[in-house]
Amino acid sequence: MRTEYKIFAAVAVFLFGAAAVYGLYTLNTGNASGTADGYEGGTEWVGVVALILSGLLCSMCAGFFWFVARRIDLRPEDREDGEIAEGAGEVGFFSPGSYWPFGIALAAAVAGIGLVFWMWWLLAFGLVCVIFASCGLLFEYYSGTRHPEAHL
């Protein structure tokens, strides 16, 4: 995790620097008589705020990875003498035959259609379905026939 927090911290520093440069670059005194588009000058704040918020988001990710990196052992990719073969092995468990991801995608599509056409009732229904489908995916192996105690 040390590599990740260093990358996110470097990107955050870059974004804060870019926000300062962008703010100074767009700062102009304007024309006293005005321009054709009605812009009188000054800093373009939307870009500055977007860069600052992006920098804060990267800082948040860097802080999370730094917090986690202090509590776990060094991984092979974090050590100078780490070998590729040390990272081999099981990554995790992935369900071989689950229909819940399709349900989540379908519910998200319904919510997206509700958002595009601004049908608040369809958006709310889609978001509730996303929550239920996510819970179904999360608890798939804790209930029903796949529950470990069901095979006793």
Automatic annotation (TrEMBL):
It catalyses: 4 Fe(II)-[cytochrome c] + O2 + 8 H(+)(in) = 4 Fe(III)-[cytochrome c] + 2 H2O + 4 H(+)(out). InterPro entries: Cyt_c_oxidase_su4_actinobac. GO terms for biological process: electron transport chain. Its EC number is 7.1.1.9. The chain crosses the membrane at residues 7-25, 45-69, 99-118, 124-142. Part of cytochrome c oxidase, its function is unknown. One of its GO terms (molecular function) is cytochrome-c oxidase activity. The keyword Nuclease does not apply. It is a multi-pass membrane protein. The keyword Transit peptide does not apply. GO terms for cellular component: plasma membrane. It is found in: Cell membrane. This is cytochrome-c oxidase. Belongs to the cytochrome c oxidase bacterial subunit CtaF family. Keywords: Cell membrane, Membrane, Translocase, Transmembrane, Transmembrane helix. It comes from Actinoplanes campanulatus.
